[in-house]
Amino acid sequence: MIQLTINGQPQQFEAPINVAQLIDHLALHGKRIAIERNGEIVPRSQFPQQMLVHGDQLEVVVAVGGG
Amino acid sequence: MDNLVIAGKTYSSRLLVGTGKYKDFNETRAAVEASGAEIITVAIRRTNIGQNAGEPNLLDVLPPSEYTLLPNTAGCYTLDDAVRTLRLARELLDGHSLVKLEVLGDPKTLYPNMVETLKAVEILIKEDFQVMVYTSDDPIIAKQLEDMGCVAVMPLASLIGSGMGILNPWNLQIIIDNAKIPVLVDAGVGTASDATIAMELGCDGVLMNTAIAAAQHPVLMASAMRKAVEAGREAYLAGRMAKKLYSASPSSPTEGVIASTEKIPGKPAGGKSE
């Protein structure tokens, strides 16, 4: 069991997952998003390689209307 | 052609618009189209985890293939949040490095914190961002931001979202006179005449959001702003006449006015005036 904090909300996962699997789990596949893990950008090309570990802090962002 | 050049890229519109505060994406798109803007600002926010299945995305409505998207750091009060936001934005927009930096100092006024802004500029420029920077209308700070390598300085005309218009045209004038990079008024424009005045002062462009989005008819106001910016720019280029309190000079010939024998105080007889 690992716990990740995603956009400030804790979430538990039964088994270790990578970033690409997390995106699928969050139903964000194919969406225009960017991800930061523990303060560092995760490049899109590394989504399948980066394994998430217990305690990771993730920010998942989109572009929204703003001035 | 009289174009706006920012970071080596040429734009024909000098009006930049934000995409916030519209009732829906249809209205956003219609207003952006009516404004004629080519550069549009967007914000970067946490996605709603688990509630966004079929939710439309702003980038589908205003695709980066049609517009130059200018991600901003609105809502950031620390240099760390601002820098992280722009790194995320660059990743989101496939390496696009033109960004709008603002580091706010106070939620009541949304006035920029220039100490934090200067620190953030230093970091962002080292990381090869092209920074358009929101600033107070302090000519010394504006020059410093230029010297640090910002691609445009964007002083406020009045507080963000206030619609109070141009409160200190003299400071803007000094900033414009000193600058070798584009100066854009960002924040405070309330109506079309404010945008025109900014452009008449010699600003290279105007960035606005609330003045359009909070109008009773945003799409119509977007069109008005387009014309206002164009009118102000043309007036600036044309060079206005000198202001004169007296020595009125009539536009019609002073010769050949049908003669009146009546004596007008201060006017020579015979239909002539001095």
Automatic annotation (TrEMBL), chain A:
Organism annotation: Nitrosomonas oligotropha
UniProt-listed InterPro entries: Beta-grasp_dom_sf (IPR012675), Mopterin_synth/thiamin_S_b (IPR016155), Thi_S (IPR010035), ThiS/MoaD-like (IPR003749)
Lineage: Bacteria, Pseudomonadati, Pseudomonadota, Betaproteobacteria, Nitrosomonadales
Signal peptide: none
The gene coding this protein: thiS
Pfam family, one: ThiS
Protein known as: Sulfur carrier protein ThiS
Alphabetized SUPFAM superfamilies for the sequence: MoaD/ThiS
UniProt-listed NCBIfam families: thiS
UniProtKB/TrEMBL annotation, chain B:
Compartments, as annotated in UniProt: Cytoplasm
Enzyme active site: 100 (schiff-base intermediate with dxp)
Gene3D superfamilies, sorted: Aldolase class I
InterPro entries given in the database record: Aldolase_TIM, Thiazole_synthase_ThiG, ThiG
CDD domains: ThiG
Any GO BP: thiamine diphosphate biosynthetic process
UniProt keyword Metal-binding, yes or no: no
Limits of the Thiazole synthase ThiG domain: 6-253
GO MF entries: thiazole synthase activity
Enzyme nomenclature, EC number: 2.8.1.10
Region (Disordered) location: 246-274
Signal peptide: none
Pathway per the UniProt entry: Cofactor biosynthesis; thiamine diphosphate biosynthesis
Annotated binding of 1-deoxy-D-xylulose 5-phosphate, by residue: 161, 187-188, 209-210
UniProt KW keywords: Cytoplasm, Schiff base, Thiamine biosynthesis, Transferase
SUPFAM superfamilies in alphabetical order: ThiG-like (SSF110399)
Reactions mediated catalytically: [ThiS sulfur-carrier protein]-C-terminal-Gly-aminoethanethioate + 2-iminoacetate + 1-deoxy-D-xylulose 5-phosphate = [ThiS sulfur-carrier protein]-C-terminal Gly-Gly + 2-[(2R,5Z)-2-carboxy-4-methylthiazol-5(2H)-ylidene]ethyl phosphate + 2 H2O + H(+)
Gene Ontology cellular-component terms listed: cytoplasm
Cited function: Catalyzes the rearrangement of 1-deoxy-D-xylulose 5-phosphate (DXP) to produce the thiazole phosphate moiety of thiamine. Sulfur is provided by the thiocarboxylate moiety of the carrier protein ThiS. In vitro, sulfur can be provided by H(2)S.
The protein's assembly and partners: Homotetramer. Forms heterodimers with either ThiH or ThiS.
HAMAP family listed in its UniProt record: ThiG (MF_00443)
Family named by the database record: Belongs to the ThiG family.
Name under which the protein is recorded: Thiazole synthase
Organism this protein belongs to: Nitrosomonas oligotropha
